[in-house]
Amino acid sequence: MPKKTSLSVLGGDLVALHLLESPKLAQPITEFIGGRHSVAEKISGSRDTVWLDKAQTTGFLGVREDVWNFQIGGYQVCAKWLKDRKGRTLSDDDITHYQKIVVALSETIRLMAEIDRVIEAHGGWPGAFQATATA
């Protein structure tokens, strides 16, 4: 029997991810490939890899397409973060931070689907949030 999860628990998980405080962030789902002191030049995504250069020799392997395309506030998060650093050499801390962002987005996508399932199981919108009368 599947474990039941409340919306408050799922919401707490989302908050921890978005504040970059979730323990899940300690386990990267991407691998940085190429030189350790890489400059963000031409940011692109293809074949589950985010590339930092035109030659597509340096980047982050394992960034799923849904994560690469995920938007918040009209911005494609994975692209914007790197484009804001265009022309800079990414430090080890930058690389680690980006990998945490990828995990946070991947988990956000998963949690959004789980939240939708919980809401649907309780009557959908707005039924899941309407108070029921007690006798």
Estimate the helix proportion, in percent.
Answer: 25-40%
Strand content: 5-15%
Please give the order of strands in the largest beta sheet.
Answer: 1-4-3-2
Instruction: Give the CA-based shape.
Output: elongated
Distance linking N and C termini: 31 Å
Oligomer: single chain
Tell me about this structure.
The protein has four helices and six strands, in the order H-E-E-E-E-H-E-E-H-H. A hairpin with a 2-residue loop joins strand 5 (71-72) and strand 6 (75-76). The model has no long low-confidence stretch (mean pLDDT 91). With 135 residues, the chain is an alpha+beta fold. The strands form two sheets. Strands 1-4-3-2 form a four-stranded antiparallel β-sheet, with no helix packed on it. It is elongated, with a radius of gyration of 18 Å. The two termini are 31 Å apart.
Strands, helices and their partners?
Elements: H1 7-18, E1 31-33, E2 44-46, E3 49-51, E4 59-61, H2 65-68, E5 71-72, E6 75-76, H3 77-83, H4 92-121
Short précis:
The chain has helices spanning 7-18, 65-68, 77-83, 92-121; strands at 31-33, 44-46, 49-51, 59-61, 71-72, 75-76.
Task: Describe the structure using short key phrases.
135 residues; alpha+beta; 6 strands; 39% helix
